């Protein structure tokens, strides 16, 4: 946990805490590690999941699974081609088998191909995109309880700002805040399509996780913490950088906080407007650049992915 008074002043907030989830692991970190800590022990030996070409979820799943002797086959759909996408896909390719869809419409075929490949390695466990299952959410519930311990006795936080993709991270934060009984607003900044990242799906995940906890003997009552979905930072869609995101990324980089343009920069861009209503803010920093730090070099699937992505978005600005 870090306190950033200079950034807080620049944003117009009274205080800004940054929860460095990018540092929550020794080899790699990030919010997805929290979900994997719970999902992997319960999963079989052969796993199938999906995400964008530059999915940090699939990269983290591939890396963590390989170190436990599991096999991952990932079905990936195109997103604008940027340096970070190439590097993250490089990580997934290094640790998993990959089926590339050449467009979103082709994703069902890529999933079917991934499934066929995975079946060769044993009974297949399907893991939804982003690891957004009740079991995975427990990882962020734990992180929220850890956060509460870290800030106990400090100025209370009014809002926690987090990127919203599959919803598991925001769901875990809301449940965690209900458990500790804090009147916080969880501000989930949408970074992907509204049909996928929305309040209804997120609250359904919250309810399913509450039921799981109840079955495990912990009844979580709805507390005063609330959820707000922020939709105005998405820009042209998942993986498309925004100007506000670029400005925010540069500002946070100056403070030693490396955020990516797909997730973190859009959450950072929402901080300024939110500071008007919430004096004491926490940014939930989810992206670990170590997942995208090893260039794979030439790889046929890397070349194919680039070709597909650039045929859909010919001129993405590189990051
Ligand atoms: C780096 C990063 N931040 C934030 C998110 C969004 O988290 P969630 O999918 O739990 O909503 C993701 C999702 O993949 C991610 O990879």
Give the helix/strand layout:
Blueprint: E1 2-3, H1 5-11, E2 15-20, H2 31-42, E3 46-52, H3 56-67, E4 71-77, H4 83-95, E5 97-100, H5 107-119, E6 124-126, H6 134-151, E7 159-164, H7 168-180, E8 185-190, H8 199-215, E9 226-230, H9 243-254, H10 264-275, E10 280-285, H11 300-312
Helix pairs in contact: 2-3, 2-6, 3-4, 6-7, 6-8, 7-8, 9-10
Q: What can you tell me about this protein's structure?
A:
- With 319 residues, the chain is an alpha/beta fold.
- The chain has 2 domains: 2-25 and 132-287, Rossmann fold, CATH 3.40.50; 44-126 and 294-312, Rossmann fold (3-Layer(aba) Sandwich).
- The protein is built from 11 helices and 10 strands.
- The chain has helices at residues 5-11, 31-42, 56-67, 83-95, 107-119, 134-151, 168-180, 199-215, 243-254, 264-275, 300-312, and strands at residues 2-3, 15-20, 46-52, 71-77, 97-100, 124-126, 159-164, 185-190, 226-230, 280-285.
- Strands 1-2-10-7-8-9 form a 6-stranded mixed beta sheet, sandwiched between helices.
- Helix 7 (168-180) links the parallel strand 7 and strand 8 (185-190).
- Helix 3 runs parallel beside helix 4 (83-95), helix 6 crosses helix 7 and helix 9 (243-254) crosses helix 10.
- The longest helix has 18 residues, at 134-151.
- The model has no long low-confidence stretch (mean pLDDT 95).
- Bound molecules: pyridoxal-5'-phosphate.
